[in-house]
Amino acid sequence: xxxxxxxxxxxxxxxxxxxxxxxHNNIATNDYITWYQQFPSQGPxxxxxxxxxKVTNEVASLFIPADRKSSTLSLPRVSLSDxxxxxxxxxxxxxxxxxxxxxxxxxxxxx
Amino acid sequence: GAVVSQHPxxxxxxxxxxxxxxxxxxxxxxxxxxxxxxxxxxxxMLMATSNEGSKATYEQGVEKDxxxxxxxxxxxxxxxxxxxxxxxSSFYICSAYQAGGGRYNEQFFGPxxxxxxx
Lengths: 111, 118
What we know:
Helix content of chain A: under 10%
Helix content of chain B: under 10%
Structural class of chain A: mainly beta
Strand order of the largest sheet of chain A: 1-9-8-3-4
Oligomer: heterodimer
Shape of chain B: globular
């Protein structure tokens, strides 16, 4: 499983767009990129997943450049309730289910 | 999304006692269940992988005799912390995975169990 590197923490204000970038230089051809969100004292929950280019859902967008060595999670117009830890994970398509969590990025949204 | 429950949500016990934590997938049959431990301000650490009807696979450094995992059915896995000590105090989280789902390796996480050993 490829190693990922994210900023430890980020601050933002309500209404702003937040972009969290994750580096995964050793990503393999079969690897996909997944982001999870975790609130304090809760289990993580899936946000978005992608393989290349851009993926968008009702919660976020995921931008993946052509070389796939990094990815950026974009949260539009954050609110206080988006304060959480965001984890970037890289895994292959073997469908074993196994995930290895890195350090994550603690996002603090201020009023 | 699929729902995973854990019970209890919080437990306080005396040193030397054993504690059992249940993890249930409420609306789907899980191919695999995973157990994680999370210390304050730290990331989730995978402890073991559990498949129904077979022995759990433990990650390096995790004592299998201390953290007993039973996966009795496709919807229930239990983690028993035997002879718990204060250093076992942590947030324990389970997750359930169903092969062939729409997203690769998507896990559905339980709400976690806060264990405090006095």
